[in-house]
């Protein structure tokens, strides 16, 4: 504690903004009754339970509207209203004396149309049928060194764990080592090659209706796309006004908070691999011997986010 208190507090100079914005709702969340929300969950359960292989499930739905009034000593005044919907589900299927499970999490901002766009009944039944097919026809994965093609869910978790969290500057500087872990990335690694020329990775809160949508972060900094990796090179880290000042930079609007009782932290928003020119079919066609991994059950990663 004494070492931290002796450390000079730095804060990057940023532009002040006066802004009011909200996320549009075609069907307002406040117009949806608890009964209709419960009915949505019940219908999803009923669709699953009709399958012969269905064993059990847990489905949850949460809606909230965040009205935020932000002011700071720089002169910023930012008022926002963001309606948010999250859904999590977990189900088990069984066949031929074997069982397997599926867990997933859906989220977005907007009105009740967000839930309708998920097409829950159809998607859950499709996933359950696919799992049943794995139980009935699945074979052990081959051994050896071979090509590996991954679907969007796997790509998402890989980028989240191996690029997103390791590129959060507070983690890089050791700020979270006692709780959330450290990072294999160091402050002097900007420009270091860690991937092929084809790999470009962006973190952005500016995707419409995405779960991590915001126009200004928790320090009043205007959001932008953050090019974390460009052509396989580490390009930039995620910063708040403190970490950026320590590195002689300006913030890239990565200060986030879960609610007003928490401390703002540097956290990713929507982190993704920029699409290339190849299609899914062409990627698979080019592989003579390999594995296509569409999704996963769980993951494991070390404290520095290196071994995933």
TrEMBL record:
Show the InterPro entries listed in the entry.
Answer: Metalloprtase-TldD/E_C, Peptidase_U62_metallo, TldD/PmbA_N, TldD/PmbA_sf
Q: Where is the Metalloprotease TldD/E C-terminal domain?
A: 144-308
Recorded GO cellular component terms are: cytosol
Please cite one Gene Ontology biological process associated with this protein: proteolysis
Query: Which terms in the Gene Ontology molecular function aspect does this entry carry?
Result: metallopeptidase activity
Recorded family membership: Belongs to the peptidase U62 family.
PANTHER family according to UniProt: UNCHARACTERIZED PROTEIN TLDD AND PMBA (PTHR30624), ZINC-DEPENDENT PROTEASE, TLDD_PMBA FAMILY (PTHR30624:SF11)
Q: What is this protein called?
A: Metalloprotease TldD/E C-terminal domain-containing protein
